[in-house]
Amino acid sequence: MTRRAAPAEPALERALDRATGQPAIPGNRVELLFDGPVNYEVMLALIASAERRIHLENYIIRDDEIGRRFAEALIERARDGLVVRVLHDWLGSLTTSRGYWRRLREGGVDVRGFGPPRVTSPLALVSRDHRKLLVVDGCRAVSGGLCVGDEWLGDPARQRQPWRDTALRVEGPAARLIDHAFAKVWRASGGAPFEDELEVDVEVAEAGETSVRVVATQPGEERTWRTIDLLLGVSAERIWVTEAYLAGPRRLYQVFEDAARDDVDVRLLVPGASDIPLVRNLSRTGYKRLLRSGVRIWEWGGPMLHAKTISLDRRWIRVGSSNLNPSSLIANWELDLFVEDHALAKELDRRFAEDLTDSGEVVRRERRLLPAVPGLGRPTALVVADHAEASGHRPSLRERRHRAFVRAAVIGRAARSALLGTAAGSLAVGAVLLILFPRVAAYATAALFVLVSALLAVQALRQRRLD
Known about the structure:
Helix content is 42%, strand content 21%. By secondary structure, it is α+β, with helices and mostly antiparallel strands. It has a 16-stranded mixed beta sheet, sandwiched between helices. Helix 8 packs parallel to helix 10 and helix 9 crosses helix 14. The longest helix is centred in the last third of the chain and has 29 residues.
């Protein structure tokens, strides 16, 4: 197939500037970090080396072994006189004990929870602070897909792997932009504004030669999606995607399919056993069309694949908190880093290829059994090749159950059956309640409508005042 000429560089740079909302930030040193044990040690080292200020923001911060290590490190630095602020999502950290946050506050740490439920703003519960970042002194940062919890550490004594995840360590001017992103969510959470010139150096010295695009999306914006869509569209050789919760809009799958038909090497690595099975089932409903177009799909054989990365043409990489689904791409506060660097792309590609050795490829195979009704049913089914055991990971009972299901089932049909069965069951229960208790159901429905209309009216009035 004849290759078309790549877009002119100035035009591509201009398009990226418009998609991200700002130009690339030069002068940074960037390092890829793989999995929790490495990430956490780097983050704790940054906290220990901070001189003036520490900002930690994460969707989930657990009151477990690693969560307590972070708490102790933050409290120690606060007692040393540093400004320490911690921002967590109310819903994501719902199971974290109140005592954990109380210990931080008593230790001198300024703590805020993002987005607790409010009667006056019922729709706000949909938009979550899904970012994961640490910034120290406004010039060094770590950001990616990792929350703070023991599942990202694993359990070596029991041969349990950590959750598979990726982040970037950034030193230089781009770290200050990540810090500014923290400031916006802090203010949105009711935190007092702070001024950089009073807490950190005004200027950030260059630390390397790498340019970084910091894309900090807010609810209603689609800058991450616009940037990904643009880069996928111009990729001519390779699109390698690692995604924890793939349930993107139809046009995302079309981009993958069109690229594969254009002879681009499109590979997707997704979880085999997910902590959210519904999303995994949604991902599987799109497998057949992708495979028919030439996209190759692997399912991870470890405990959980939580990374959100893209590598394009051995040139661009994207690492961040956004999942390829509507919640992340449209509704949440997210943070993603886009880097054009051949060395980093080569390193991420190497890890992607290594991850494939611990995964099973989804393939189309001819059915062994004839359809129950002649003329109905497709001649092929989807199966997952056996996951490689080279990693030495000893699966838990839950993981073994998931794998057994994957190997035994026809993936596409099982996924659709699970989704349709859940919907059918819910409608059936609703119908029974309406038949048995029509008056009660009518009053309850009317009351619900009145409540929702009142809340929406309050929200409309508040929006009118803001406008």
